Amino acid sequence: MHETLAVVAPLLAVRTLSMGLAGTDVEQHRHFATAAEAYRRDLMRRMNGDLAENSRTGEVYLAGSELWEETPPLQYAAPTLGWVLGNRILSILVLGTWLVGTILVAAARVRRAEVG
Q1: How far is CA 40 from CA 27, 49, 56, in A?
Q2: 8 Å CB contact between 2 and 16
Q3: Average pLDDT over every residue of 14-39
Q4: 86-90 long-range contacts, Cβ below 8 Å, gap at least 24?
Q5: Cα end-to-end span (Å), the chain
Q6: Which site among 29, 49, 58, 84 is 20 to 30 Å from 102 CA-CA?
Q7: Please, is 50 exposed, middle or buried when counting C-beta atoms within 10 Å of its C-beta (0-12, 13-18, 19+)?
């Protein structure tokens, strides 16, 4: 929605592109949330599996430190610049159009300017 309004207000395209490059846009939030959710599900699968294998009815089971040492940390790979720019094509096109339009208007004004 914001990107389409950028046709009349290029600052919106600048803002959207800037947020994408800074990693603070909605798409990158979703990307991280998806990776974190996959990690959480794997962690729960590990914990539940350990509990199912080692607990006994009527006993309190506490996992040892080796379970946590074997559990890998979250390895998140941020999206590449190409991925980010691919999601911001409309903003880039709008800004490019505004740039070309500004250059054309400036060139026309310079040609009409009187020197003297």
Answers
A1: 20, 14, 25
A2: yes
A3: 96
A4: 87/20, 87/25, 87/27, 88/16, 88/17, 88/20, 90/3, 90/4, 90/6, 90/13
A5: 48
A6: 84
A7: middle
